[in-house]
Fold this sequence. Notes:
heterodimer, A: 4 strands, B: alpha+beta
Amino acid sequence: MRLGTYIATAVTKLCQKGILAGKTNIQKVIYFALPEDQRKAFYYPYHYGPYCSEVQQSVNALLKNSILVPSSGKGLVLKTGWKQNQSDDPVINRISDVVNFLSANGQVDTSTIANLAKIHLLSKTDREDALSDLPWYIKNQSRFLGWLGLAELSRNEIENYLSLAEKMDAKLMETAGADS
Amino acid sequence: MTGKRIRDPLYGFIRVDGLDLKIIDHKLVQRLRWISQLPLEQLVYPSAQHSRFEHSLGVMHLAEIAADRLIQNSKERFDEAVDAHSSPLRKDFKKEEDLHNFFVRCAKWSGLLHDLGHAPFSHTLEDACRYSVNAPVKYDHENFGYFLARKIFEDLKDVGLDKGLMGIVLRVLNKNIQLSDLYPLEILIRRIIDGPMDVDKGDYLPRDSYHCGVNYGVYDHTFLWDNVVITQSFQLGVLPKAALEAWGLTLARHKMFNYVYKHHVRTITDALLVEILQLSFDAPGMNHNDLRDIVPLQAPADVDVGQNLHKFVHWTDNSLLKALDSLGNSEISSRIEAFSSRNLYKKSFAVNLSAYPNAVGNESDVLQRINILKNQTASQGMAWNAIPLNEIIVPVFDRKVQRELLVQEDSGQEIPVAEYLGFGVDEDQIQEQGDMFLHVFVKPFSSFSCDDLKNRVADLLKDFEV
């Protein structure tokens, strides 16, 4: 896992698509792009959704080394003229796919991306009550994880997010297939 | 059923009933008597001779208090969690009091069993396994602890333990089940045992402090755990009057890390022990079975193999050192001799790994390469070792204090402790953990050049640049 490289790639791609490259969005893009076992090992449910302290530390390391710098508006950008080492890590391709997917589906707002990540995380469960009614489960479980905004979404809104999460997984599976 | 009162230096008495005793008397819990809580800190603080057994009893005791007070202080929210549970708990318990006792016992036993899987030299052995490509297993005490707790419950299946209760305790202890997958009551118990303000640190800070003979880990545990609440976002929080004590717990943690857990002598012995274990894993001709005396449990299924479980029960600090010594490897034995006689390496230099952003979250890879370099330089007479350590951050800027420790105001609104106490900072100033440093130690009076070693380490780390 080369978090520094992943983050630099995520920032580049987010900026290219005009999506805010802030810490929360970076967290979520890496979350979507990591293989499932690493997601489980490193991410835990936090106030703004799935959260990884190593990602946050790595962002800080890049800022300290001036590889990332605050942009003139909000968020972060890569230092002008800085060139990234080439890497054949499949997660790099997946980061690109994630950002393209978010952009193509109009998921560019930070809170929307966070909701999509929260719903994605909650949908990966084998609890029986989730299997019988996933949107209800997500709404109910959000309440106990402190995701009060998500708990207030309508069933229809949750179903829309769920559909998007499934589409994203399918897209990333395609990439994984092509990589192998 | 008859209970007992167990003397404790922090709490006076810890009361247990007959069912608790069935578990406490199990050989897998009794084993914890022989696992030192601070095996390496003893080299700095000689009186730190206490065991994980007394800590486990202490966590059980605080978990009982915290669970009980959560119900008393946040009745409505507790009821909401009960109603959202998987099985209709209210039908199972005719009396409200029985339901409360059920929840409290779930928390108690989760606390009692939370450290069951600890290896001798706890985190040091786990680090050695992570940093060695030839380790028989990436030993993780939480992972094995769950299987060991399951084994205890299986062994006690005929003594009338409540199946629902055992199920909840096992799910709380099973860290392969993420918090987001737990049922609401289980989420609450997981948070009592493992969170920004939990009974684990609530016990080990004052206990370690007491046994080390220092005052750094002291806070008012009676007051803090008496005033815990379930906040509006279902986190563990405190009533306003206990806000200072929640902050006090964090300060105590900071001081204990500064003066005890990260004392430089402890760090040097940590690196030495990791090196000893790595040498045993890498010794020529060793297979995983030869290493059973070093790491008896190498897969969850080993818990059900009598011989392996027997070895685990007797797997203690002393037995591990003896097993390592009996491998008959002079490199290992000389280091054990150095360890036992406190003849230690000295600090040489430290490298800030944040200059290598791909090293973050990748410490195992860094250390595996360091191990290779160490073996290469050994033939040139260079005796050294290295270990990664996070710099300690000032607790004011710690994310836990700024965001995760919560106070429930009289209005019912929750706000972070830092904000409540008037030292909230902006998101940009919040810190996760301190920078990770690679600390390098060398054998005293070595004739080789430390600058040469520094250059070689720097060359190795270039692979972790972005």
